[in-house]
Amino acid sequence: MMNQSFEKITAALKKCKADAWELIETATSGWEFYFIRRRLDQHRASDVRTYTVKVYKYIDDKKFLGSASGVIYPTADDASVEKTLSRLVLRAALVKNPAYTLADKPVTVPPKTDPVDLKKISGDFIDAVLSVPETSGEDVNSFEIFVNSVTRHTLNSNGVEYTCVYPSSTLELVVNARNGSHEIELYRYATSGSCDKRRIARDVADAMRFGRDRLKAEPTPNLKKFDVVFSTSDSVEIYDYCLSRHSAGFKFRKISDCEIGSSVCAAGDGDRLTLEALTALPNSSLDCPVDEEGSVVRDRFLIRDGVAENFWGSRQFSCYLGLKDSSIVSNVRVSGGRDMASVRSGDYLEVVEFSSFQVDPIGGDIAGEIRLGYLHRGGEVKIVTGGSVSGSMSEAAPTMRFSDKCVQYDGFVVPAATRLKNLRVTGVVEDR
């Protein structure tokens, strides 16, 4: 992948006053498709190349190490490149972080350079969306497909170098549902590596079903404390919180109180969580065996059977914690859990559509506004909308239950259903 721009920037980095540096060249070749309903409106190809540089400067006899990063475009001439690097070196000298080392071990993983089949992936997306039958009440308003072949080439001042080619795709879709004069829209945005045709078709069909049910929904009653089941991509937020608690950055900054060998939750009757960082995950949009800093990604358990085993993180915070062979995590698999029937037993509210759902990675606060939910109570199911869900992961995690059946959302493989007990469900009408 070496080209004149890369060589030019590398030469400038070697001559500038930086004490160390990292260079990432990202070349993205893609196909884009824009559909209005089921008709192709326009399509085009794209080809973009950018260079991200990060320079380092030692301070006070190498007690501290400052850094600054920026982007250089292929059209930049020699003078512009030198000017950009000079500014970054000056900025780096103003930052006083405790000193740490850049990646310095030769990468033994073979380069990943198999070509990406843009034609097949694009065709799979189009076929998957168009395979879903429409009705007079639900249809696809529009959808856009972006399929890319990404080549990432990394090099640092220690000579650590790696090239990786991988697919990265995005589907944006709008579904309309109508009932007489009443009409609503549901928006979907999903990323992946290639295309899982069955999963895409199922997601489009679910969106149509959710739209149809949304038109029949009644106001959510004020349930106060109630169990909530998460069975869509919003559940990733829950497990991303667990992943963040094992970040070296969080641990060093004392945001996380996790300790190796200790239970990740207080005593409770919840399921014992296993969370594993993965070297490779097919159909992930970040399926690369070496992270952007040049560290090899290795399969490792961060949590096993509810007990903390490892932290993960960047070179900076990994060095601060004395971690060996650590790396930035892109792909994660959650396992453990129980049968689906047990997760869905008794009374609970399953929320499948939020206007916004978040789990704060620092404090663990849970918050989401309900657009569509299914209230299971007393053997009956009521379709509801409105109100909100709130709570705290520190309170909910010890009793969390989740299914052993899993589903993949880009770089996360998570349980298909997750149940958090006694969340606050604030409705829009009084409960009866």
- Seen as an oligomer or otherwise, the chain set is single chain
Could you tell me how far the N terminus lies from the C terminus, measured between alpha carbons in angstroms? 66 Å
Biggest sheet descriptor: 7 strands, antiparallel
What's the helix count?
9
Mean pLDDT comes to: 95
Work out the count of structural domains: 2
Helical/strand content category: alpha+beta
Overall geometry comes to globular
Unreliable segments of 5+ consecutive residues: none
- Fraction of residues in H or I helices: 10-25%
Q: Order of strands side by side in the largest beta sheet?
A: 4-3-2-1-5-6-7
| Helix-strand topology string | HEEEHEHEEEHEEHHEEEHEHEEEEHEEEE
Topology:
Blueprint: H1 4-15, E1 20-36, E2 39-59, E3 64-72, H2 78-92, E4 97-98, H3 118-130, E5 138-156, E6 161-179, E7 182-192, H4 197-214, E8 218-219, E9 224-230, H5 235-244, H6 248-252, E10 274-277, E11 300-304, E12 307-308, H7 315-321, E13 332-335, H8 340-343, E14 348-359, E15 365-377, E16 380-385, E17 388-392, H9 393-396, E18 401-402, E19 406-409, E20 412-415, E21 418-426
Parallel strand pairs: 8-16, 9-14, 13-20
Antiparallel strand pairs: 1-2, 1-5, 2-3, 3-4, 5-6, 6-7, 9-21, 10-11, 10-13, 11-12, 14-15, 15-16, 15-17, 17-21, 18-21, 19-20
What does this structure look like?
The chain is α+β, with helices and mostly antiparallel strands and 432 residues long. It has two domains: 209 residues, 2-Layer Sandwich (PmbA/TldD fold); 215 residues, no CATH class. The chain has nine helices and 21 strands. Strands 4-3-2-1-5-6-7 form a seven-stranded antiparallel β-sheet. A six-stranded mixed β-sheet has the order 12-11-10-13-20-19, with helices on one face. A five-stranded mixed β-barrel has the order 9-14-15-17-21. The longest helix has 18 residues. 39% of the residues are buried.
